[in-house]
Automatic annotation (TrEMBL):
SMART domains: PKS_KR. PANTHER family: OXIDOREDUCTASE (PTHR42760:SF123), SHORT-CHAIN DEHYDROGENASES/REDUCTASES FAMILY MEMBER (PTHR42760). Belongs to the short-chain dehydrogenases/reductases (SDR) family. NCBIfam families: PRK07231.1 (NF005559). Residues 3-187 form the Ketoreductase domain. InterPro entries: KR_dom (IPR057326), NAD(P)-bd_dom_sf (IPR036291), Sc_DH/Rdtase_CS (IPR020904), SDR_fam (IPR002347). This is SDR family NAD(P)-dependent oxidoreductase. The lineage of its organism: Bacteria, Pseudomonadati, Pseudomonadota, Alphaproteobacteria, Hyphomicrobiales. It comes from the Bacteria.
Length: 251
């Protein structure tokens, strides 16, 4: 049996696939999410795993709620050994139409929320011999992405944060890495892509298809696994069908 792991955004998309994968690997999983309807569906879907999984309604922008959730996890589920920061929102809006309010909201959830979860988790991990934190960045931070000023900036921040925390937490035995997915078929992407933008995306992808949430899980499992990735920290792994490798179109 492995230790306990917190997955934010664990009720949908990539987070939910991660929860399922980690349960199959023997982790005890606490999933934090704010969407009550997704939580109810996910609970039903994973009922067979019994007491090894718990879904909690937590908004990661609520600092005191995060502090309490991390403390509950360590108390009820045993030493915290992993975190996957998957909660996030995305908006496709031209910069001229992006209000400061919206920009701040995206940063608050994607970047500040990930920071607070990582900071609180690291406080617990330093008491019990360390652990591994995996942040979810995006290819929108690796290359310019039309209409994603707030989102791309938040994910660029997540990549920088990953390196900084990796250096700060290394002496505590805590590794911090990130995964940068390309277009993955989840509710978030289905909301963003029109038929037209979907066709354009596919042309830029060397593998010529969107990924599945399950296809992001391998990299996350690797980074959480102390034996497999013990010497990897501060790194961002792209899981993007080759998008960031180039993908120039010959027309
Ligand atoms: P999703 O919408 O399916 O899941 C995101 C979950 O986060 C939702 O359940 C939502 O309720 C939760 N959430 C949002 N705000 C929250 C908050 N304040 N507190 C707690 N939970 C909150 O999206 P997804 O596609 O699975 O995205 C997961 C992560 O992967 C996000 O960080 C996203 O930016 C990133 N990502 C996704 C893609 C993609 O193509 N799907 C690509 C690159 C990066």
């Amino acid at each position: 049996m492995k230790g306990s792991v917190i997955v934010t955004g664990g009720a949908s998309g990539i987070g939910l696939a991660v929860v399922e994968t980690l349960l199959a690997e023997g982790w005890r999983v606490v999933a934090l999410d704010l969407a009550a309807d997704s939580i109810a569906t996910a609970r039903e879907h994973l009922a067979a795993h019994g007491a090894r999984v718990r879904f909690e309604t937590v908004d990661i922008t609520d600092e005191s709620a995060v502090v309490a959730a991390v403390a509950r996890t360590a108390a009820d589920f045993g030493p915290l050994k992993g975190v996957v920061n998957s909660a996030g929102i995305a908006r496709d809006i031209p910069a001229f139409d992006t209000s400061v309010e919206l920009f701040r909201k995206v940063l608050d959830i994607n970047l500040v929320g990930s920071f607070v979860v990582a900071r609180e988790a690291a406080k617990a991990m330093r008491e019990t011999g360390g652990g591994s934190i995996v942040n979810i960045a995006s290819i929108s931070a690796l290359r310019g992405n039309l209409g994603r000023s707030a989102y791309g900036a938040s994910k660029g921040g997540v990549m920088a944060l990953t390196k900084i925390l990796a250096v700060e937490f290394a002496p505590l035995g805590i590794r911090v890495n990130a995964v940068a997915p390309g277009p993955i078929e989840t509710p978030l992407v289905r909301e963003l892509l029109t038929a037209e933008t979907r066709a354009a995306w596919l042309k830029t992808l060397p593998l010529r298809r969107n990924g599945t949430p399950q296809e992001v899980c391998g990299a996350i499992s690797f980074l959480l696994d102390e034996r497999a990735s013990s010497y990897v920290t501060g790194e961002t792994i792209a899981v993007d069908g080759g998008f960031s490798a180039g993908g120039l179109i010959n027309v």
